Amino acid sequence: MIRTGLCSVTFRALDVEAIIDLAAETGIEAIEWGADRHVLPGDLAQARRVRDLCRDKGIAPASYGSYVRAGTPDATGAFAEVLDTAEALGSGNIRVWAGKAKRSDAGESAFNTAAAELHDMARLAAEKSITVSVEYHRNSLTEEAEDTLALMEAAGHDNLFSYWQPVPGRGRARWLEELDLLAPHLGDLHVFHWIMTDAGQERRPLAEGVADWRALIDAWTPAPRWPHPRTGFLEFVRDDTVALYHDDSHHLRALCGHVTA
User: Fold this and answer.
1) Cα distance between residue 7 and residue 32, in whole Å
2) How many whole angstroms separate alpha carbon 116 and alpha carbon 25?
3) In whole angstroms, what is the distance from residue 170 CA to residue 60 CA?
4) What is the pLDDT of residues 184-241, one digit of tens each?
């Protein structure tokens, strides 16, 4: 079975205790803790408190969702604080970002700087047995799978991995192609169902995306060197409501093989 996870940023308005209780009630096994709200970088006391609260409920504080962006000013200094916080939190992985624009807009100098900084981040984290995973996201150097693959190879460190999540509107065929391209460096997934409308992107119930997600999860093969349990992290729900989260978390558990849909 695949481990079920939750990104704490799904509920920025809730406190740590409420998120842990909600996760425990709904069969969530791991949490990615957001560094912008629930566990701030440098707050080691809070990190240790959250670690202990998670362990009391049998939940892994699996990942630390930082907002460090390789290739931006003082990213290396900011990462040092994030690394200490992740260690105190007991997280085996740190999420980072790469740049603030796609490669074609950022330019090769920014790309090369980000690659070098990602290498250094992965090296430092490896000394503490913590992996580094780059967010797969629009408006960054990882907007496209081909650029993400090139970035991983330019960074050139075995402790560096890529997250993956579906860019709304691209469709199942392209999503499957992206997963295949990133397989040599792939770690975990962020799971949600958004669609594109004339007004822009719209959050929808995960139930409506189950067919796509079954195909994606069947195709998802983490890199052979990925050291953690394969985890699908539920991220964001429609209207940020707990009521709708309950339905989405049920479908996540079904996709991960824990319950029947």
Assistant:
1) 5
2) 42
3) 32
4) 999 999 999 999 999 999 999 999 999 999 999 999 999 999 999 999 999 999 999 9
Residue type for position 11 = F
Cα gap 74→121, rounded to integer Å:
12
Which neighbouring-strand residues pair with 185? Answer: none
Whether the Cβ atoms of residue 159 and residue 125 lie closer than 8 Å to each other? yes
148 vs 80, 129, 131, CA distance in Å? 23, 23, 17
pLDDT value, residue 231 = 98
Query: Residue 193 is which amino acid?
Result: H
d(CA 131, CA 56): 24
**Rounded CA separation 139/106 (Å):** 10
Compute φ and ψ for 143, nearest 5 degrees.
-70, -30
119-168 pLDDT per residue, tens: 999 999 999 999 999 999 999 999 999 999 999 999 999 999 999 999 99
Measured CA to CA, the distance from residue 210 to residue 57 in angstroms comes to 28
The token pair at 67 is 């907002």
Find the Cα–Cα–Cα–Cα dihedral 163, 231, 195, 261, rounded to 10°. Answer: 160
b/e code 101-138 from CB counts within 10 Å (16+ = b): ebbeebeeebbebbbbbbbbbbebbeeeebbbbbbbbe
Look at residues 165, 71, 163 and name the one whose alpha carbon lies nearest to residue 121. 71
Look up tokens 């199942």; give the residue. 172
Instruction: Count the Cβ atoms, other than its own, within 10 Å of residue 82.
Output: 25
For every residue of 205-222, which 3-state class applies, written as one string?
CHHHHHHHHHHHHHHCCC
